[in-house]
């Protein structure tokens, strides 16, 4: 359960009730088919309190119920589940090689998905295209929250995009523009969140990827190289919100030029574009050497349980690149680090899109915990 739901909040009875609503919904998300009685025991609440809150959530359409098979004498229990088809989180992805739209339920299951061409030159044009392809998906749907992921340096709380070099964008009020686009779709007043694509993908690994990791690093190998850092089940943004920018760690000062103006950055060696220029065994081995070097630095600095690889380069090279990196890791890493700590993302190319959808769904639960019902 998220940390903001683990400790009883200080405040009024109303605040405590909102917190219980969020805890109950989150617990049912985590354990589909749970009964009211088991839910009360799990959360340490009275059965009457659980029954009252569940009735509210059923009335709002956020939950459904079905009878459980009888187990003997007495009244049969009823299984509680989150509603799966109508109450959804909206996810948008903007990237250099594609854009995408998805609608996910609170269990993280995709109910609709559209993949679009690469992002146009201007942010407003990209948002207009995403709006256009989202509108037909909204009939009969209640959008609970929305998230937008893109590759760039941004401050999620303020929603300010400092720089997205591969998109050619800088100094933009991203969250404000995103909310304007949502309002144009009639989605007014819903929670909205913006996040760096690698951070979103890292979050998705925990929320949807079946990786029960307290600490991990996701490396997105695409047009650029981005990193998402998860510490104690939360995305770590750093003091200036720029944590995870591993693509600009210099690996060789005499190496190829990088878009940032330096030479020999990890991104200059490991971009998908570079692979497309020469998809040869020799290029794969060279990339494996550099990725092993970068991975050793990440392991020594952050000590994650796992480094998870994803993005277009991994989609193109798959197990061949992974195995070559694992074979080379001992050359650079400390003896305490195991090559098996480097793995491929189970979410594939969809990691950022699904991750920002999962993040949006969790933001909805978090807001429920402190806002009026």
From TrEMBL:
Domain HTH cro/C1-type intervals: 25-50
Taxonomic superkingdom: Bacteria
Family recorded in the similarity comment: Belongs to the ROK (NagC/XylR) family.
Protein name listed in UniProt: ROK family protein
Species per Swiss-Prot/TrEMBL record: Meiothermus taiwanensis WR-220
């Amino acid at each position: 359960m998220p940390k903001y739901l683990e400790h009883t909040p200080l405040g009024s009875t109303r605040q405590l009730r909102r917190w219980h609503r969020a805890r109950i919904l989150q617990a049912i998300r985590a354990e589909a088919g749970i009964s009211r009685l088991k839910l009360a025991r799990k959360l340490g609440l009275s059965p009457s309190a659980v029954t009252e809150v569940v009735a509210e959530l059923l009335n709002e359409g956020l939950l459904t119920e079905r009878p459980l098979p009888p187990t003997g004498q007495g009244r049969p229990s009823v299984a509680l589940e989150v509603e799966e088809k109508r109450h959804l989180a909206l996810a948008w992805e903007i990237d250099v090689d594609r854009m995408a739209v998805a609608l996910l339920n609170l269990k993280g299951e995709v109910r609709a998905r559209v993949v679009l061409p690469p992002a146009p030159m201007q942010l407003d044009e990209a948002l207009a295209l995403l709006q256009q392809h989202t509108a037909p998906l909204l009939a009969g749907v209640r959008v609970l929250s929305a998230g937008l992921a893109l590759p760039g340096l941004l401050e999620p709380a303020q929603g300010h995009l400092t720089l997205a070099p591969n998109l050619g964008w800088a100094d933009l009020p991203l969250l404000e523009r995103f909310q304007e686009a949502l309002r144009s779709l009639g989605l007014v007043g819903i929670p909205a969140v913006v996040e760096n694509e690698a951070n979103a993908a890292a979050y998705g690994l925990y929320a949807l990827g079946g990786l029960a990791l307290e600490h991990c690093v996701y490396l997105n190998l695409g047009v650029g190289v981005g990193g998402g850092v998860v510490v104690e089940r939360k995305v770590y943004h750093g003091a200036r919100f720029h944590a995870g920018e591993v693509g600009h760690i210099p690996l060789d000062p005499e190496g190829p030029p990088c878009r940032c103006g330096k030479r020999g950055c990890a991104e200059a060696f490991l971009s998908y574009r570079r692979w497309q220029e020469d998809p040869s065994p020799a290029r794969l081995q060279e990339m494996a050497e550099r990725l092993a070097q970068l991975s050793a630095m990440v392991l020594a600095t952050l000590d994650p349980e796992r480094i998870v690889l994803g993005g277009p380069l991994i989609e193109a090279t798959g197990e061949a690149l992974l195995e070559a990196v694992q074979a080379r890791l001992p050359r650079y890493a400390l003896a305490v680090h195991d090559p098996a700590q480097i793995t491929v993302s189970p979410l594939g190319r969809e990691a950022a899109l699904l991750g920002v959808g999962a993040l949006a769904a969790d933001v909805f639960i978090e807001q429920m915990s402190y806002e009026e019902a």
